[in-house]
Amino acid sequence: MEDKKDKKGNKSTTQIPKESRNVLYGEETEIPAVLNNVLTLLNRMDTRLSSIEKSKKNTTTLSQMNDKLNSLSARVIDAEKGIVDVKSRVTQLEATSHGTGNIFDEIKAKTDKLASDIEHLQRERTDFENRQENMKEKIDNLEEEKCMLNDKFIDIQCRSMKYTLIFSGIEEHRDEDCEDKLRRFIYQDMRIEHRLEFGKSYRNKPRPIIARFLYFSDLDMVKRAGKTLKGTHYGVNQQFPAEIEGKKRKLYPIMKAERKNNSKVVLIRDKDTRIPLSPG
Q1: Are 228 and 235 in contact (CB under 8 A)?
Q2: pLDDT digits (tens, 9 = 90+) for 87-137
Q3: Which residue in 11, 26, 119, 222 has the most C-beta neighbors within 10 A?
């Protein structure tokens, strides 16, 4: 079977030695043809050797590439492990975040409840303050009414005592007749001969005689005659309610000081039951 030629029409390496043997041991051939065949053989051998070297280089390159691929595969495996670990951590973080979110939701719910409670307490406090203000206003009104009633009561007392004088210093005896004793005292010590009309006469602790006159003119007459008792232990004074007596006691020192300065002063009662100091 004839040797095949390559695609380019060149002779194969097995055909070239055969032709070379024919040249050496067979038929006579031209030397240039032989040399040409030898040269072609050498070129073929050089080409094959180059191809073999390239194959070795390619083999080395493939080996290096395989090593690199193995290294890359290992790195990919490590990266996959890292990704799995990261995913695990992300899952844990998501679980923790979910738990934290629940905590925040619970805190927010409690905060909202506290805010609602505070708002409710503030409303109750406002209502309480309003009620307290209303109560204070009512108390103030009651105090004002009380003062008005007290003033009216004192005024009524003053009106009821308008015809009453208090005689102090008169000696007391058992089973005495206060009115008869008072008449004799007025006649003898106060030198009033006018027949006086008493509504009622009685002693009161600490045992002065309280006399109620039927006529204010009689009271005024006796009161004016009180100056005759100056220097004695007797005394005649207008009867006043306890509140007014307390105010008078505060004004007595001022009145005495004014009288020492030769000022004429008297204590009078105005419509508001005050006892102002006025010049006489």
Answers
A1: no
A2: 888 888 877 777 777 888 888 888 888 899 999 999 999 999 999 999 999
A3: 222
Angle at 213 between CA 208 and CA 215, to 5 degrees: 155
Selection from 160, 205, 200, 206 nearest residue 179 by Cα:
200
Range of weakest confidence among 137-141, 233-237, 242-246: 242-246
Burial group, residue 174, by CB count within 10 angstroms (0-12, 13-18, 19+): exposed
Asked whether 222 and 182 are in contact (CB, 8 A), the reply is: no
Prediction pTM value? 0.43
pLDDT in tens, 92-105: 887 777 777 788 88
Q: How far, rounded to the nearest angstrom, does the alpha carbon of residue 79 sit from its chain's CA centroid?
A: 57
The residue among 192, 207, 198 whose CA lies nearest residue 180 is 198
